[in-house]
Amino acid sequence: MAATFISAESLRRNFAEVKAGMKPKEAVEESNRCLYCYDAPCIKACPTGINIPSFIKKIASGNMKGSARTIMEANPVGASCSRVCPTEELCEGACVLNHSSKPIMIGDLQRYATDWAIRNEQVLFKAGRSNGNKIAVIGGGPAGLSAARELARFGFAVTIFEAKEQAGGLDTYGIVSFRLPQEISLWEVEQVRQLGVEIRTGTKVGTAISVEEIRQQFDAIVLAVGMSKVPKLGIEGEALQGVYDAIEFVESTKTSIRTDIAGKKVAVIGAGNTAIDAATCSVRLGAEEVTIVYRRTAAEMTAYDFEFDFAKQDGVMFKWLTAPKRMIGDAAGNVTAMECMSMRLDESGGQIKPVPVAGSEFFMDVDAVILAIGQTRHLNLVEQLGLSHKRGVVTIDPVTFQTSDPQVYAAGDVIFGDGQGEAMVVSAAQQGKKAAYALYQQIVKQQEETA
Amino acid sequence: MADLRINLAGISSPNPFWLASAPPTNTGYQVQRAFEAGWGGAVWKTLGDPIINTSSRFAAVHFNGQRVAGFNNIELITDRPLEVNLKEIGETKKRFPNHAVVVSLMVEPKREKWHEIVKKVEAVGVDGLELNFGCPHGMAERGMGSASGQQPDLVEAQTMWAKEAAKTPVIVKLTPNITDITATAKAAVRGGADAISLINTINSLAGVDLDTWNTIPHVGGKGAHGGYCGPAVKPIALNMVAECARNSLVNVPISGIGGISNWRDAVEFMLMGATGVQVCTAAMHHGFSIVEDMIDGLNNYLDEKGLQSVTELIGRSVPRYSDWGDLDLNYQVVARIHEEECIICNKCHIACEDTSHQCIERLTTDDGRAYLKVREEDCVGCNLCSIVCPVEGAISMVELPSGELPMSWNQRQKAMASVGDSNQEPGGTSKEAV
């Protein structure tokens, strides 16, 4: 039994969306503050190119449906993005009012408009007239949904193969509920389904259906499987109970409330956005103490600044220049401690590399360790498809998103890495759109020309 | 501290800020509260024969999230018994002997009616009378208010009738629902008016409800035109005041009314010829306390300008107001964009490109920095870019020496006439001036 008793109800409250939506008056004031720039820099700063001044003007004029459509037209996961986009690095960072006043709260306005659409159960798009071609989209995350939505509007018969119980990918399972409630992502999934896209959930390609079957049944494939589990550290004690994969850990909080973290001392290994998510989740699950352990310093961490701030506000502690060496368990096989080493940054090789400080070993008492040191690749599937790749990162034409196989396109995290692509949800959405446009060009335009 | 006292045709008040005849001056309680708050005078809500008001009376025009850019009403004159009003007027004047208590009047256009009401009102001790020839709704259907105010002969006759009985100054309040405001202003002067006040409200329908398709406001599903006022009408009022001020036949003091919301507006009206101002919508929007900044702001402004008295403002801009035909056609300004202030919203560019003279270019420096530049040789000096620019000081309109002597259209026509018809430009340019 946990030493601290926290009711399940209060845990549930902890996972309610942190930020309140704009009130109508706020939205009216803020939308009227937008200058409606010509050739606005915010549009260019948005990876999906949402016509931001247009959707904001529509909020101001009371054309809420038009506003939501403008957003979702450019970004099929625009409701999720309004919550998770690093807006200060994108649209809001580009707002011209940064130079004379305060930037427009574009993300909040985007949420206001899409929340309206969700609340009013709006159907924003229609499928195009059938063009007789069938496309398989492997993976129902942001990139897959985005590709499927656009393909359906072009008149393709689209089937999404989704390994999990629900589509939406990281938006549904991988982003903490208090930032992105699951129903938002599921609404976006529903929008795609309403276009006639078949979403076969619980259907893992390579297991439930073979690559060969898909190749036979469909004219082309969009591969949008994202990434896989967190890799092992390769140190002693990783198999102990109480050692978790951060992706799985966050996922476990999306649909139910776990009570096994309350009162525990938690260490999170890694300092990316997923690490922050795991850490803040742990705080909200009632952990006594949560420490992010990172082998480099705050300057090198990959989490966004606002995520870092958020974690600090939640009381997460940071142990910089520290790396785990082994995990120690009790007789029952539960992790109880972690042996760590201090690190220092070595710049001698031209690259900043963390190196262990000899003799610096020390012990940390822990009840749980969450690994958030990146994600592995769906290497097996990529190889079954026979695609060129670099360590699982599928190689694509940067314009068309076509892979080495002309019938296969790829988008999202499956192409992210090795200097290729972007890790943001919004980039995945854009890549999905682009893959869809290229596919349309390739298949339909070709047929029209030969007809 | 400058002297804020004014004297309008013999009616003096501690400052130029009066409450206009309207809902805020309906009762003694309200007017006394207003005087306590600092208002220099009040024109009591119009007295006349008993009327019945509707329920649902006001509406407003909101603009881009700002409340009350314009205000519309279908309320009529006072609905309280004359005796009650007269008693409260007397009490108010006694309590505030130095404040201006003016009473608005409206009766049928009959001589004896005017004599009767003037005598009754003056008997309780008032500083002046204002004849309401302006109210555009309700009373007009009965031949009063703007119905009589739109006919110069009726304005003249009624003014005369009021003056026959009046011992205190008579102000004639003019309706703007007329093509040439000076026509009725002159009629008032001919009738013996001691001053004029303008403008009353403008015929208006505030809006239509998109859900119900009812008018705004509506009374049980039916609407009627009302009177429009508030900030949106200020430019209309200011022009009418100025037209009266610069007309030599309208040689009486002016009480300026129409969308005055703060001390700045008041200064503008006084510069354009008003001796004092009347305010209503701003008080209805914010309460009587807004007069505090009006007084304070005006004081500071006068100090800054080195003026001893607010009366030094009166009419100072009138000589600068003229007719289009007198404007110098050789005068030239061009827009200049100041890069250090510019935030590159491109609003000036698209405004010029789409709707003016296509002379603002979007350029990029060698190091890739965007900037905007006016092609001055093509700029006509229309001001549009500086109007749409959201950053104060980013675009200024700069005077360019034309190198030519001033020449107005009228001067040009005259000069051309003197050299004979043979030199006239093809197409008959004289017609364009009409």
Structural class of chain B: alpha/beta
Helix content percent band of chain B: 25-40%
Largest interface: A-B, 16 and 13 residues
Q: Distance between termini of chain B?
A: 48 Å
Cα-atom radius of gyration of chain A: 23 Å
Element layout with pairings:
The complex is a heterodimer of chains A (451) and B (434).
Chain A: H1 8-14, H2 24-33, H3 41-45, H4 52-61, H5 64-74, H6 78-84, H7 91-94, H8 106-119, E1 134-138, H9 142-153, E2 157-161, H10 170-173, H11 182-193, E3 198-200, H12 211-217, E4 220-223, E5 243-245, H13 246-255, E6 265-269, H14 273-284, E7 289-293, H15 305-313, E8 317-319, E9 322-329, E10 335-346, E11 353-356, E12 362-365, E13 368-371, H16 379-385, E14 389-390, E15 393-394, E16 408-410, H17 425-450
Parallel strand pairs in A: 1-2, 1-4, 2-3, 4-16, 5-13, 6-7, 6-13, 7-8
Antiparallel strand pairs in A: 9-10, 10-11, 10-12, 14-15
Chain B: E1 6-8, E2 11-13, E3 17-19, H1 28-37, E4 41-47, E5 58-63, E6 66-73, H2 82-95, E7 100-105, H3 111-123, E8 128-132, H4 146-149, H5 152-165, E9 170-173, H6 181-190, E10 195-198, E11 202-204, E12 207-208, E13 215-216, E14 226-229, H7 234-245, E15 254-257, H8 263-271, E16 274-279, H9 281-286, H10 291-305, E17 332-337, H11 347-355, E18 360-364, E19 370-374, H12 384-388, E20 395-400, H13 409-418, H14 429-432
Parallel strand pairs in B: 3-4, 3-16, 4-7, 7-8, 8-9, 9-10, 10-15, 15-16
Antiparallel strand pairs in B: 1-2, 5-6, 6-14, 11-14, 12-13, 17-20, 18-19
Helix pairs in contact in B: 1-2, 3-5, 5-6, 8-10
Provide structural commentary.
The complex is a heterodimer of chains A (451) and B (434). Chain A has 17 helices and 16 strands. In chain A, the strands form four sheets. Chain A has a five-stranded parallel sheet with strand order 3-2-1-4-16, with helices on both faces. Chain A has a five-stranded parallel sheet with strand order 5-13-6-7-8. In chain A, strands 9, 10, 11 and 12 form a four-stranded antiparallel sheet that branches. Chain A has 451 residues and is α/β, with parallel strands linked by helices. The C terminus of chain B is likely disordered. Chain B is globular. Chain B is 31% helix and 21% strand. Chain B has two domains: 315 residues, Aldolase class I (TIM Barrel, Alpha-Beta Barrel), CATH 3.20.20; 77 residues, Alpha-Beta Plaits. In chain B, strand 3, helix 1 and strand 4 form a beta-alpha-beta unit. Chain B is an alpha/beta fold and 434 residues long. Chains A and B meet through helix 2 of A and helix 11 of B.
